[in-house]
Write a structure and sequence with these properties.
15% strand; alpha/beta; 10 strands
Length: 341
């Protein structure tokens, strides 16, 4: 709310308040907010923040705690084109009356409160006596059902920013010609989702080659392109990623003999937000397209072992697939990805 008009300008305007924990935010919330916004000149949407209560909401579920900043960001993004809807985080202490009274002051004044249940209505009546209250129609599914049954079971009920947050990113990695690109693309097709291609290959194709012309800066350029591609990608519960920044770091070490500190920082921060890694051993015949190292089988295996060591250096839990048969390898990888879902 700090970046909208000063609340003093709301004198004489009808101001409404809609508050929730948004655990998680779903399309039913958006419908309620739309309905509330039509009834007032300005609608404040309050993201309630109370650690103990939030922990009780997700107890016994697979949900991790969501920061108020993230929930506020989701709503701000979705209503960015609606200047009459202002989103703010509202800490809610044990004394709800005091918390809601302070919230009303932050909004300058509140003429109408929109609630979803009788309990919230009673709290608002105590905190803001005499303020008009409107009970909005219930949601189906509601947030409690989504928490209990999981996001995958109610995927279409989640707005796009929330889907992006809960999309699991699976990196397919391994040494050259291990089949990771083909496998990633195949799994993406089977699961009707997106595959993010290896940006490094595209980058070096634009330069006309790789071997003997690579420079240290190329690693950062590759990382930047990879991260940008990931941010734009929209997956269907799962996002298949062809290689990752650890692979880029491995190439840098191989070419220049030292680990790039900027890449190191990005990997340790998990800037790519990878959830799972599937590592393919080099059981495919070498596909010599002129852009690969011409290693024999022993050299390929030795390099693959060194690459695995780098992943373990970064604390990655690899799912290693060591199948020589193409069909069996795809089957094992598909089963793994489905288990992540």
């Amino acid at each position: 709310m700090d970046f909208g008009p000063d609340v003093s300008t709301y004198e004489g305007k009808r101001v409404g308040l809609f508050g929730d924990y948004f655990y998680p935010l779903h399309r039913g919330h958006l419908t309620q907010i739309d309905e509330a916004a039509t009834r007032v000149d300005v609608l404040f949407v309050a993201v309630f923040a109370n650690d103990p209560h939030e922990q009780s909401l997700i107890a016994g579920t697979e949900f991790a705690q969501l920061s108020p900043r993230l929930r506020e960001r989701w709503l701000s993004e979705l209503f960015a084109a609606r200047p009459n809807i202002r989103v703010l985080t509202a800490p809610v202490g044990s004394d709800h009356t005091a918390s809601f009274h302070e919230l009303a002051l932050r909004c300058h004044h509140i003429d109408e409160v929109f609630v979803q249940d009788d309990e919230t209505a009673a709290e608002m009546e105590t905190a803001l006596p005499g303020t008009a209250r409107v009970t909005l129609p219930p949601n189906t599914p509601d947030a409690a059902t989504i928490r209990r049954e999981g996001t995958s079971a109610h995927w279409e009920a989640l707005p796009r920013p929330v889907q992006l947050h809960y999309t699991k990113r699976v990196a397919f990695c391994g040494w050259e010609s291990s089949g990771k690109s083909f496998t990633a693309e195949h799994i993406a097709r089977v699961l009707a989702t997106t595959c993010v291609p290896e940006y490094g290959r595209e980058y070096y194709e634009q330069l006309g080659g790789y071997e003997d012309i690579a420079e240290s800066q190329d690693a950062l350029n590759t990382a930047s392109g990879q991260l940008h591609s990931l941010e734009r990608a929209v997956g269907n519960r799962i996002l298949c990623v062809d290689t990752d920044l650890i692979y880029t770091q491995f190439y840098h070490l191989k070419d220049f003999g030292w680990m790039h500190p900027a890449l190191d920082a990005l990997v340790r921060a998990n800037a790519e937000k990878i959830d799972e890694w599937i590592f393919l051993e080099p059981r495919n015949p070498l596909a010599d397209d002129g852009s690969r190292f011409r290693y024999n089988d022993d050299e390929r295996q030795s390099t693959s072992n060194s690459l695995q060591e780098m992943y373990r250096h970064y604390g990655v839990n690899l799912h290693v697939v060591d199948e020589a048969d193409d069909a069996k390898r795809l089957e094992v990888c598909e089963e793994l990805v489905r288990s992540f879902m």
